[in-house]
């Protein structure tokens, strides 16, 4: 599933240029992805697209501290929770986008939730929201697509 999502980010920098599901499914199959991967990725993406930031708008209006629920602590590894807090503290995620990211992470099977998949999920949330990334934070997130940067 995550290879499909990474492919979408690389192929369609603008979500508006992403084809309809039926055409996208054919394009992904032609690119060599398995039907199960395609189906899971499109289902996950549908869940992302169905999240209306308006549903989370109250999060942007609050000034309190976000405390993770017991289920979130159990399902989201420490480094993933740290990433979420880091992204919000550095202006990469609004509180509403943070909640969207947590929602999408919790939609994944437990064994697939890791730091690289959380980075990819964060990129997907920002991609769907057409949000700009702060440069240094964006470079860190892009390691989920391209691996760790090397010194040249």
UniProtKB/TrEMBL annotation:
Signal peptide (from-to): none
Coiled coil: none
Domain of life from the UniProt record: Bacteria
Pfam families in the cross-refs: DUF494
Family: Belongs to the Smg family.
HAMAP family, per the entry: Smg
Annotated protein name in UniProt: Protein Smg homolog
């Amino acid at each position: 599933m995550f290879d499909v999502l990474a492919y979408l980010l690389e192929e369609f920098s603008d979500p508006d240029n992403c084809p309809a599901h039926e055409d996208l499914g054919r394009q992904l199959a032609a690119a060599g992805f398995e039907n199960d991967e395609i189906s899971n990725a499109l289902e996950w993406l549908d869940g992302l697209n169905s999240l209306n930031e308006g549903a989370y708008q109250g999060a942007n209006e609050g000034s309190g501290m976000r405390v993770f629920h017991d289920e979130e602590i159990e399902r989201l590894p420490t480094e993933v929770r740290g990433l979420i807090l880091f992204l919000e503290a550095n202006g990469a995620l609004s509180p509403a986008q943070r909640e969207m990211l947590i929602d999408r992470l919790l939609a994944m099977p437990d064994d697939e939730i890791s730091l690289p998949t959380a980075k990819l999920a964060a990129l997907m949330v920002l991609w769907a929201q057409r949000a700009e990334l702060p440069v240094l934070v964006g470079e860190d997130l892009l390691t989920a697509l391209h691996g760790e940067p090397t010194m040249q």
